[in-house]
Design brief:
single chain; 260 residues; alpha/beta; Rossmann fold; eight-stranded mixed β-sheet; four-stranded antiparallel β-sheet; 8 helices; 12 strands; globular
Amino acid sequence: MVPVALISTEFGVITILRSRSNGSHIYAQDDGWQSHADRTGVSLSYYIHALYGLATQTGAREVLMIGGGGGTLGTMLTNAGLNVTIVDINPTSFTIARDFFSLSPAIECHVCDGADFLGRQDRFYDLIIVDAFDGGAIPTHLRSVEFFLLAQRRLNAAGHILVNVLLDHDFDRTADDIAFSVAVTGLDVQVLDIQGDLDRNAIVVGSGTGPLKPPTLLVVPEIQQEQIAEALGNMRFRARRKSRSVKGMINHLARLIAPE
C-alpha cells in the first residue's frame, strides 16, 4: 500500500492508501482503518458486509447512517435501491468518500453530530445504523440510553437499529453494555459476534419485528471474497450478558423519567 493523500482535520490526520497491485483504497485515521474498499467502492471489511446483510433482511427503505467514513455501506445500500442519509461530524469524510471510495451521488449527506441531527428531525426511518468512532471507541453520548431512546422515537413501528462495536477480547463488555441501552427502548436485542477473536467487530441489533438471521456475503467484491465469506460464516448471535443488575436498571429508568 502506498500513501496517496495525507489530510489534517480538526478530528485527526487522515491517510489514504492505495494498493499498487489491485487498486483498493484504505481510509486510515489515528491507528485504525475507517474504510477499505475495492476499485468500485465495494467494502473489503467483513463487518460492513455483515451490516449490509442484516440491513437487507429488515425490508428497510429509508436508512439513516450515523458515521460515514468512506461511505462504502451507504453506497452498497443505495445500489440495492434503499434511500440513504449519512450524518458525519467531519466534513472531510464526505470529500474523501467521493474522491476515493465512489460515494453514490444519490446519498443525502449532512455534516452534524448524530445525536444533534436526530434531535432536530421530524422524519422517520426504517433503519438507523450507528458506525461512529472517536479513536477506537464510540463516543459516550452515542452509546447511551438517552441516545437510543431518541433514535427509537425516529424509527417507524417495525424499525431496526444496528450498532457496529469494536471489541478487544471476549471479556470486553462494550457490546453488552450497548445492548442494554438498546433494550431499554423496548426493541428486541441480538448480539452478532465472533467469540474467541481479538480486536474484532460485533454488531448489536435492535429489532421491532423479531430476530434477524446471521448474514452471508451478498455483494461480491473484486478481491478477498473468500476471507470475507469465511469471517461472516464465523459470526454467530449470542446471548446478551447482563451488564447491570435489575435493581440498577430500574433506578436508571426512574432517573430518566423523573420530572426535573
